[in-house]
């Protein structure tokens, strides 16, 4: 998994790698090599990762501390780019993921095309590699696709069609309501806080889509009950006979 020398590394990225089974345990130096970034950057994300994700454990390996997820079966390093590996990564990445529009968080498709809101099912076209997935198109369930054509496939990235049901929760507390202290208002929105222009305080910015400010919304849509409808690992067409569901899986906090 190559993210480049200057990735916007998150705790979630590391959590996904721990779940792949690529290694039995991961040290700071191993993760630094995997993500091609500095050890201090890795250590910053590892500090407190077990508090955020309850299934992450640690053990001492010589002078180093190793992180791992119990129950994940290590795979052969030369065979990590497998369909199973990609499915597992997708399972983690898209469970409870924010899929609303940055300018209209309450719908997953453009309102002019007919909004898709909480309770609706949608299909997403996803491409990339484990730890670096990108959603390119979201379709209403009635407009879903069965597969992709060979000329749409890439030899270096995996193409996937996944589907799930939308549910809603707030993106930011815009009402004077008593939100619980541990309520995850921003979970998996793909956003972070930063200073923009001459603003004296930090604002929430949804990165990756022209840096739109994420609008406050009490019913922003997130994805649940995710299934993989079709997958083509690294451009090799492969129709699936079984659907894959996260409904009954305990993956820890989103």
Short description:
The chain has helices at 11-18, 28-35, 39-46, 49-52, 83-94; strands at residues 57-61, 64-68, 121-129, 132-140, 158-169, 191-194, 203-206, 220-232.
Number of helices: 5
Gyration radius over CA: 19 Å
Oligomerization category of the chains in this entry = single chain
Can you write the helix and strand succession as a string? Answer: HHHHEEHEEEEEE
- Work out the helicity level: 10-25%
- Major beta-sheet overview: 4 strands, antiparallel
* Strand line-up across the major sheet: 4-3-5-8
List segments where confidence is low: pLDDT < 50 over at least 5 consecutive residues. Answer: 1-7, 76-81, 207-212, 238-254
What's the layout of helices and strands?
Blueprint: H1 11-18, H2 28-35, H3 39-46, H4 49-52, E1 57-61, E2 64-68, H5 83-94, E3 121-129, E4 132-140, E5 158-169, E6 191-194, E7 203-206, E8 220-232
Antiparallel strand pairs: 1-2, 3-4, 3-5, 5-8, 6-7
Helix pairs in contact: 2-3
Describe this structure in words.
There is one protein chain. The protein has two domains: 11-78, Winged helix-like DNA-binding domain superfamily/Winged helix DNA-binding domain (Arc Repressor Mutant, subunit A), CATH 1.10.10; 81-235, no CATH class. 16% of the residues lie in helices and 24% in strands. It is built from five helices and eight strands. It has helices spanning 11-18, 28-35, 39-46, 49-52, 83-94; strands spanning 57-61, 64-68, 121-129, 132-140, 158-169, 191-194, 203-206, 220-232. Strands 4-3-5-8 form a four-stranded antiparallel β-sheet, with helices on one face. The chain is globular and about 60 Å long.
